[in-house]
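CORE FACILITY INTAKE
Project code: CF-77B
Contact: R.S. (postdoc)
Sample description: multi-component assembly, two entities in total
Requested service: structural model of the whole complex
Turnaround: standard
Below are the sequence entries exactly as provided by the requester. Do not edit them.
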Amino acid sequence: MCNQTVGLVAAELERHGIVTVALQLLRTVAEKVRPPRALCLPFPHGYPLDTPGDPERQRAVLRAALGLAEVPGPGPRLVEYRVGG
Amino acid sequence: MAKTSDLSLPVRLFLRGYRWRRIDPVPFAALPRPVGQCTVGLVSSAGFVLPGMAPFDRGQRGGDGSWRAIPGDADSSTLLDGHRSDAFDHGGMASDPELAFPLQRLRELSEAGVVGAVAPHHASCMGAITATGRLVKETAPEIAARFVEDQVDVALLVPV
């Protein structure tokens, strides 16, 4: 449900001119809900930013999300996150 | 990547008949300036609150669709997990709230010049919402209004 929740909020933000990147833990849900920009993560529920207590790996996820923010439309854009990629 | 097959049987049975809310048409805003000059805000659906804030209602039918504004200078280590779902392991974000509300990580990226600025407010909501009416009609527009007022350019949204 979390994946849908953030996707729906993302859509409203985009309607207000704010660029969004929704992290997603279930690709099947992302494909159904269709957030404008989605970064699909290879991590389990409860661990969206990879590893607890590992700032470098957590920043890597955010950097990838910010990179997706720069990708031009049209949406939806669904991109897989690759650890170390 | 998580899979629905990882979820408990009751959750899988519920999801089998659940109608996901499809975004159509898909809005797509244009980036107004390079990310390195953008103000960035966070939206987390981990159900976090700061000490003293009213907790999310874990028993509300369909899910608590309200939200909390988290100040940009908040100490994320004090965030309290109020997510009602028992369908996932809470241990990671209990030991390190940055895992689901990466405010300090965002500040570090701002200091490094990767982003322009950290927004003055961020949004915390409850992700386990099956009845999305209030979320769509009230909460999401309220978050959007706050972010517009704060001149947020980019929002990163974090589910758990």
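Facility notes:
- Chain B has one domain: 35-158.
- Chain B touches chain A through 75 residues (CB under 8 Å).
Invoice: internal transfer
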